[in-house]
Amino acid sequence: MSTTIATPDADEECAYCGSRLFDHDPICVRDCTDDCGSPTYFCNYACLSAYIDENDMTTGDACKWGPDESGCC
Fold first, then answer.
1. Does 64 map to a domain?
2. Which domain of life is it from (predicted)?
3. What is the extent of the structural domain holding 48?
4. What pLDDT score was predicted for residue 65?
5. Whole-angstrom Cα distance, residue 50 to residue 15?
6. HEC string for the chain
7. Alpha carbon distance 48, 41 (integer Å)
């Protein structure tokens, strides 16, 4: 799976709170299960975490693991 990496514009805003990315510690996220679409930018991990929580993006997407099992998925 190949992607192109590019620096966002200086005025690019956070997908969650609307703050300017480069006023903070920006994070770029791509959904690479669907052709690595356009990147989504967040100004920091707190906004990324809030976005994930508010959109229920973790439900059903994690491996099932127990402390007695070896390995993961």
1. no
2. Archaea
3. 9-57
4. 61
5. 11
6. CCCCCCCCCCCCECCCCCCEHHHCCCEEECCCCCCCCCCEEECCHHHHHHHHHHCCCCCCCCCCCCCCCCCCC
7. 9
How many other C-beta atoms lie within 10 A of the C-beta of residue 34?
Answer: 7
> pLDDT digit of tens for each residue in the chain (73 aa)?
555 677 888 899 999 999 999 998 899 888 766 666 778 899 999 999 999 899 887 776 556 666 776 655 5
Are the beta carbons of 66 and 73 closer than 8 angstroms? no
pLDDT tens column, 32-43: 666 667 788 999
pTM (predicted TM-score) = 0.67
At position 63, the amino acid (one-letter code) is: C
The number of distinct structural domains making up the chain is 1
